[in-house]
UniProtKB/TrEMBL annotation:
InterPro entries recorded: AB_hydrolase_1 (IPR000073), AB_hydrolase_fold (IPR029058)
GO MF annotation list: serine hydrolase activity
Protein name (record): DgyrCDS4751
Domain AB hydrolase-1: 15-122, 137-229
Domain of life: Eukaryota
Length: 245
């Protein structure tokens, strides 16, 4: 399998950055790759199969695609450094993948940080996804980074495919994405959340806090879905302090 990744820093602690839906190293993590503490940490950001520069081939959308991405991420981390325990940072879909990795492979995870993520989907969530299915209704600022990577037509098609794929968790698995993995997470976990996130209602971080045995939370009162971009300095500081303590 051909996978694209970027590396930044020379610190002793390793971080793997997990992007959101159709995300890539450059669309999702510039504020971290450019500004995060690269003396104590070595950062790796990757493009999952079919995303960003991990093409061709085109993105596969199998049933339980999050679990497939988690398996691929584990293989990548073991190939990069089989002797390290990794710190996982995951946004949105990437956070879901990180939750699955941490639950199913505790032996390779030191700490976990997720934001804009959920362990299940509800009917309300599916309605929110349908509202954003038409990318032409997005603002140009929100849409352009993805169109620059994929082109307009390809991005429109793949975003619609993503909406269909995540909806299958609701129709085929009663909304359960990764509840079993959540209950197996042993590592210290930090859940960050924008209180005005239109894609992930506040019940989801509350569920994670309740179900993960060693879990802290940090909220951004005015934050939406992209708190690591909009509030990059605060985000980086909070995450840095959590990983170093």
């Amino acid at each position: 399998m051909r996978l694209h990744y970027e590396r930044k820093g020379n610190g002793n602690e390793f971080i793997m950055l997990f992007p959101g839906a159709l995300g890539s190293t450059r669309t999702d993590f510039l504020p971290q790759l450019e500004k995060f503490n690269d003396k104590d940490f070595t950062l790796f950001a990757w493009d999952p199969p079919g995303y960003g520069k991990s093409r061709p081939p085109h993105r596969p959308w199998p049933t339980k695609f999050f679990q497939k991405d988690a398996d691929t991420a584990v293989a990548l981390m073991k190939a990069l450094n089989p002797d390290k325990k990794w710190n996982l940072l995951g946004w949105s879909d990437g956070g879901i993948t990180g939750l699955i990795v941490a639950g199913n492979h505790p032996e390779i995870v030191r700490k976990l940080v997720v934001w804009g993520s959920n362990a299940y989907v509800t009917a309300q969530d599916i309605m929110a996804y349908e509202k954003v299915r038409d990318v032409n209704a997005w603002s140009e600022k929100m849409r352009k980074p993805y169109e620059d990577v994929y082109g307009e037509d390809y991005f429109r098609t793949e975003w619609s495919n993503w909406c269909d794929a995540i909806s299958r968790y609701f129709t085929e698995f009663n909304g359960d994405i990764c509840k079993d993995a959540i209950h197996k997470i042993e590592c210290p976990t930090l859940v960050l959340h924008g209180m005005k996130d239109p894609m992930v209602p506040n019940e989801h971080p509350e569920y994670l806090k309740k179900e993960i045995s060693d879990c802290e939370t940090h909220y951004f009162p005015e934050g939406k879905h992209n708190i690591h971009m909009r509030y990059a300095d605060e985000f980086n500081k909070v995450v840095n302090n959590f990983l170093l303590k």
